[in-house]
Amino acid sequence: MQPFIADTDTENWHDFEVGSRREIIALLRAISDKKQEVRVAARDGGAVYTTSILDVDGDTGTVLVDRPLDPDYERALLSGDVSFETSLDKIRIFFGTDHLQASLHDGKPALKMGVPASLIRLQRREYYRMATPLTNPVRVSIPLPPELGGGVGVFPLADISVGGIAILDNQFVLGDTIGRDYAECRIELPDLGNVTTGLQIRNMLDMTLLNNNTNRRLGCQFTDMGRGAAAAVQRYITKLERERNARIAGLG
């Protein structure tokens, strides 16, 4: 089964399909080893939550993922087609299955699926995203229209790219309107100062975490961004990349 991809700008995803079983197993094991967060969704949109890959067994051709605590989510995911999205070294990865089943991993509840026959690895530069720090997070200030209460809303970033940002709106301040534009938004980039840009909401995802808390993630595209602001965003992404590489090398 091919994964279903929510973004409208990935119509050429066939160009990024990986069909080598050995490569697929290696990628899934790397995701598991790095404990990458994985978003999983039922095709009907009724269940979305975050999980992780627990084990990849090339001999039996099976993959084990963590199991949601909420039995309603589990029933939804066991009932049909399911899609997964994650990232590895700034590359977005999608895969899917039409058959999940209850299982155990080290005596704890898990979900089991077969190694997918293919996956999608989006590696074009415009898809590269850098996760922003969890401690001392980067924030964006968004002027709110009167119908949303007015004033200014301040939201932490989840990630940043040259084309936009993902923000966390866990209090559901911005609602769920896809396509809405917000002008004169200010992003506070550490050590680089503030940049001002317009934002357009492009996608929304409500994620139920394993502790049953709900996080809302809003994907936003930059609009009306000046050349200087765009350069500052690129410098900040480069800074994050260097810090990440230093950590990997044991120098951070």
Automatic annotation (TrEMBL):
<keyword id="KW-0966">Cell projection</keyword>
<dbReference type="InterPro" id="IPR012349">
    <property type="entry name" value="Split_barrel_FMN-bd"/>
</dbReference>
<dbReference type="InterPro" id="IPR009926">
    <property type="entry name" value="T3SS_YcgR_PilZN"/>
</dbReference>
<keyword id="KW-0975">Bacterial flagellum</keyword>
<dbReference type="GO" id="GO:0071973">
    <property type="term" value="P:bacterial-type flagellum-dependent cell motility"/>
</dbReference>
<protein>
    <recommendedName>
        <fullName>Flagellar brake protein YcgR</fullName>
    </recommendedName>
</protein>
<feature type="domain" description="Type III secretion system flagellar brake protein YcgR PilZN">
    <location>
        <begin position="17"/>
        <end position="121"/>
    </location>
</feature>
<comment type="subunit">
    <text>Monomer. Interacts with the flagellar basal bodies.</text>
</comment>
<keyword id="KW-0547">Nucleotide-binding</keyword>
<dbReference type="GO" id="GO:0035438">
    <property type="term" value="F:cyclic-di-GMP binding"/>
</dbReference>
<dbReference type="GO" id="GO:0071945">
    <property type="term" value="P:regulation of bacterial-type flagellum-dependent cell motility by regulation of motor speed"/>
</dbReference>
<keyword id="KW-0973">c-di-GMP</keyword>
<keyword id="KW-0282">Flagellum</keyword>
<dbReference type="GO" id="GO:0009425">
    <property type="term" value="C:bacterial-type flagellum basal body"/>
</dbReference>
<comment type="function">
    <text>Acts as a flagellar brake, regulating swimming and swarming in a bis-(3'-5') cyclic diguanylic acid (c-di-GMP)-dependent manner. Binds 1 c-di-GMP dimer per subunit. Increasing levels of c-di-GMP lead to decreased motility.</text>
</comment>
<dbReference type="Pfam" id="PF07238">
    <property type="entry name" value="PilZ"/>
</dbReference>
<dbReference type="InterPro" id="IPR023787">
    <property type="entry name" value="T3SS_YcgR"/>
</dbReference>
<dbReference type="InterPro" id="IPR009875">
    <property type="entry name" value="PilZ_domain"/>
</dbReference>
<dbReference type="Pfam" id="PF07317">
    <property type="entry name" value="PilZN"/>
</dbReference>
<comment type="similarity">
    <text>Belongs to the YcgR family.</text>
</comment>
<keyword id="KW-0969">Cilium</keyword>
<feature type="domain" description="PilZ">
    <location>
        <begin position="123"/>
        <end position="238"/>
    </location>
</feature>
